[in-house]
Amino acid sequence: MPGLKTKLTFKERLVGTLSYGREQIQSQIRDRKNFKIEKLPRFAARFFQIVVAFGSFFFLGRQDSTLLTPRDLWSIINYTWFLSIVSPIVSVILVIQYFAPWLTKTWTSRRMLIFESVCDVTITFLWIICFSVAASRMGTDCPPGTSTSCDRFNWVLAFEVLSFVFWFAAIVFDVLGLLKGVWGYGEEIPDDVVELNSAARRQTRFR
What we know:
By secondary structure, this protein is mainly alpha-helical. It contains eight helices and no strands.
């Protein structure tokens, strides 16, 4: 059946053309490496990360050795003190990367978000460790209102929780940015692409 063979070949070519056109339009709609990153919410999270780190740093310097020494808490307090210094430095670096010309010209949006995600996950994990170790070693021996020393220690725990919250919020922004920028999650599909998809589906019914 030569006619049938020619007809099928034409339909196959038409489907291939439609698929190619759809891919071309999609590539014009979204660049998977360079895309817009929502800066305002992540900059707000960075600001609160810095503020909370300074709050933690303040109460870490007002701890009572008579409360910490018997419970072997000095090591984790020193580690938290170090993290409260490193944490805002990392926050500032992650903001500066959006304004550094040598980074904005050489790094893609995807690479910047991946770098940011690695930093956010690492710092969040470290804050979880600080809180978990400090809380477990103190146990229930120091409820709020027991003494001034206990209140200061509990403030450290509170700022550790707040640090975790704001760093975890940054992770959420990173994931949403990658989903939207790389995979187009939540994007409105243009009419041209919808029409091409419909035409391709109609033609494939005859294959």
